[in-house]
Structure formats: C-alpha cells, structure tokens
Amino acid sequence: MSRRHRKVSSEGLDISAAQKAYVRRHELRKRKIRFYQIIILIGFISFWEISTHFNIVDAFIFSSPTRLVRTIKEMAMDGSLFYHIGITLFETLASFALVNIIGIIFAIIIWWNDSIAKVLEPYLIVLNSLPKSALAPVFIVWLGNNMKTIIVAAISVALFGTIITLYSDFKAVEEDKIKLIYTLGGKKKDVLYKVIIPSNIPSMISLMKVNIGLSLVGVIIGEFLAAKAGLGYLIVYGSQIFRLDWVIMSIVILCVIATGLYKLLSFFENKYSK
Amino acid sequence: MSELLRIDHISYTYHNLEGETPALLDVSFGVNDGEFIGIVGPSGCGKSTLLSLIAGLLTPSCGSIYIDGKDIKSSGKNIGYMLQKDHLLDWRNTLKNVTLGLEIQHKLSDNSYAQINDLLNTYGLITFKNSYPSELSGGMRQRAALIRTLLLEPDILLLDEPFSALDYQTRLEVSDDIWTIIRKEQKTAILITHDISEAISMSDKIIILSSRPGRVKNIIDINLSVSDRSPFAARSALEFKDYFNLIWKELNHNEQAT
Fold it and tell me: Which residue pairs from B22-28 have beta carbons closer than 8 angstroms and sit at least 24 positions apart in sequence?
C-alpha cells in the first residue's frame, strides 16, 4: 500500500501538462456521467408528476411523487412508517446473519468430511434449484402465521447457494498450500484455520453481498404470505384495499434499504482489503 | 560421519481407477550426517514422491525409512520440507509467515522472537519484517521460506526444486545463499533438481534415478578441487565439466533404454 502513496505524492510534486490534461478529462467524464444519472432521475419524477397532474394517467392507480411525499409524511408522523421499516429490517438482518453462520458452519463440515459432501451433493443441488417461494406456504402451515415463518423462508432462499459456493471455494484452495501446512507438521485443523478460512475471507464477503439481497427477497416473499407488519405486508395489503400510495412508497423504501445494505457491506469489504 | 538416514528397499505405487502407476521401485541409499545430497532424474521419475515418503506425508508401499536407526514414524525427528514455490501466505507479513510452523506446532514463545530476529537479520530480511509477500523479491521470498523451515530445527532438510520458479540470475544467487545458510546451520539436506549443474555445484553426492518407475541408477561422489566450495565458485572447478558429462550420459542412456 505504501507504494501507492508514494506514486500519488510524486505526481503531486511535478505534474506535466499532459498529465494535467489527462486528469481534467477524467474529471470531466466523471462529472458528465453523474450529470446524466441525475437527469434521468429528475426526468422520471417530473414526467410522473406531470402526467398524473394532467390526468394522462390515473394518480389513484399510479400514485404520484407529491402523493408519495404526503403519505410518507403522514406515516412518519404517526410512527407506523418506522414500525414497518423496522420489522422488515430486523427480519432481513436476522435471516442474513443466520444464513451466513449456518452456511459457513455447514460448508466447513462438508469440506472436512468428503464422504458427507458426496452423500449430500444431490440433495443440495435439488434444494438449491427449487423455487423457494414454493416452500413458503408449507412453512406457514408448519410454523404458523408469524415472524418465524418469514425468517425461515428468507433463510431457505439464500442458504443452499451459500453452502455450495463456499464449499467449492474451499475446495479451490491451492493443493500445495495445504501440503505446506502438513510439511510444517500441521493437522487438518491447522489447514482449516491457517489456510482455508483466511484465504477465503474475500470470497466470503462477496458472497455476503449477494446474500443481503437474497435475504431481502426472502423476507418480502415471506411477508406477502404471512405477516401483520413490514413493507411486504404493506405492499400486499395496500394493493388489496387500493391504497397504491402505500405500495409505491414501500417499493421506493425497499430500493433505499437494498442500496444502503449493499453499500454497508462494500464499506466493510474496502476496509478489510485495505 | 555417521549415517543419519537410511532408505531401505522402498517402493511406492499410485492407485487410481484407471490402474496403478509404480512411481518408485526398490530404492535404497544412505545419507550421512551433515551431507548435501542431490537427486537428479528424468521428469516423472518419482523424485517428489521420494521426498514425500521421507517427510512422512506418504507411507511406502513396501520397504522402510530409518533415521538414526529408528523408523521415521517413531523417530521423533523433525524433517523440514521446502516446496517448489515459497508458498508464503499473502495475508501474513514476513514475520507472521516465518513463524507459521512454530505457531502450528505450538512452539512460539517469547524466547523464539530473539532467534527469529537473529535469523531475519543474518539473512537480510529484518527491514522487511512487516512487509507482505507481494512486496518481496523472489530471492527474499525463498529466504523467508527457508527461515520458516529452519525455525522448526529440522534434522534433515528436503528441497524439492526450490529454485525452479526463479529467473536464472536470481536462481544462482539464491542457490548460493541457501547453500551457505544450510552449511552454516550444519544441516543435512536432500535436493531434487532438473538442473545438472545446480546438482553438481551444491552436492557432496549425487543420486541418479532412472525414468519411471524410479530406481537408483548410480551414486556419484562429487570431489571438486576448489578452495571455496560455494556453488558459484564450484562451477569453475576443473572437474565440473567431467561430472556434467558423466551425469548427462547416465541420464540420456537411460532415455534410450526405455
């Protein structure tokens, strides 16, 4: 890392005209990209607002930006907004944590014992390719119409893929690195702690970035079917009683939550790889 | 000099579903305490298998290996093994990498750090103590790998083409370095190599293996009339080219026979 610092500072000392021009072009391009991104957003929102304002589309069905702002304000005032967001966030983070913990432990077990891995392989493949939403009604019957069902449903969405990916990552570790541990007098446990886990931290983090999205998908599916609160509940309930303002607002908030959680993990990733 | 290691009529066969592949057949030789042995042979002749057997990573199909007259499994002797690449772990700095073996064997104590610093200092790595492998040159990485092995105080050092991943110039420097370190620490060493010159320049005795299944074809004692016996100086010895031709002929004769 120190090498990179040196490079930056040496650039700071004597910048040639060509280098300056290059940096300026780069900055310009970056600003242009940001500009068009914002234009698209503003364009979309104003088009939406104008077309509903002049009754080109029905604001009752399509909602509108002003109606959204009003709804958010109302629901924030009576606190129900934060209640629903809180429930969905809690369920997402709980299933995310459980998926990672169970996935890592399970992957270690089948890495450790090759026979278990071979025996379970077809089952894992079937469970991984099965559409998990098909399981959700079954969970309701088994576990009841509550949060347990939602969390279990969300776990089922991400868990099997996690196990399969982690296991193949563990298996992909260079054979000679493992031999090295044995030549130093180590046992299988040392291979696990000194090589397999530390060399797979980056792939675990990128897997977590996938899992946070999948957990959110699972929680929303679960809330569609078995919830009395949460953003998924709000979407389904809102569409049933024709409060499309609720539905669209929940979708917008989900966009924000999904992005926020992804950025949070990227932040940790950068911190680790530094 | 007493005999430290005895390879006694060992054979080794690999099995897979397509069939069996005999890798070594009835190999016997002895290694004296403090000796530097070179093993040469055509590729695939089971050289690396031989080292894995001595290190106890594999068990011979038949025959035995003795250290100090005791079976390797029960001798309690330490065997150091250097692989073809240094295999320093990218996420550990130099200090953490050299202590890996001690850590695994639970021998890392406050006292060991004095010895570690000493070795790092002697072999020019002390200023790179906190550097990561990506910041080290090929030679430094190889020296770090050797220190990692030496810290376990091995009675015998096994070197499996440890220089093959280096470019030619670095290779000459590093083999000089490593040879000097091994001599200084008075270790017994067994070196596998493809490079005949490297074998002659470093070894006291060269064992020539036949192509698969590997058998001992010949054992040649190397006596060079140079005052400075370092590998680099050894290359200018008068007898060097004669040994080279002799070994070259043995290896080629072998190719024609099979």
Answer: B22/B212, B22/B213, B23/B49, B23/B212, B23/B213, B23/B214, B24/B49, B24/B50, B24/B53, B24/B213, B24/B214, B24/B215, B25/B213, B25/B214, B25/B215, B26/B63, B26/B215, B27/B63, B27/B209, B27/B214, B27/B215, B27/B216, B28/B63, B28/B216
Q: Is A209 on the interface with B (CB under 8 A)?
A: no
Q: How far is B134 from chain A (nearest CA, A)?
A: 10
Angle at A52 between CA A46 and CA A54, to 5 degrees: 100
Residues of chain B contacting A195 with CB distance shorter than 8 Å? 89
Q: Which CATH number is A61-273 given?
A: 1.10.3720.10
Chain A residues whose beta carbon lies within 8 Å of the beta carbon of residue B87: 174, 176-177, 180
When CB atoms are compared, the residue of A177, A182, A198 closest to B57 is A182
A 120-179 → B contacts, CB under 8 A? 174, 176-177, 179
In our burial notation (b when 16+ CB lie closer than 10 A, e otherwise), range A161-193 reads bbbbbbbebbeebeeebbbbbbbbbbeeebbbe
Are B104 and A185 a contacting pair at CB < 8 A? yes
pTM of the model as a whole: 0.81
Superfamily assignment of B3-257 in CATH?
P-loop containing nucleotide triphosphate hydrolases (3.40.50.300)
Domain ranges of chain B: 3-257
pLDDT tens, B164-218? 777 788 788 888 888 888 888 888 999 998 888 888 888 888 998 888 788 888 8
Residue A176 and residue B86 in contact, taking contact as beta carbons nearer than 8 Å: no
| Residue in A with minimal Cα distance to B54 | A183
ipTM confidence: 0.83
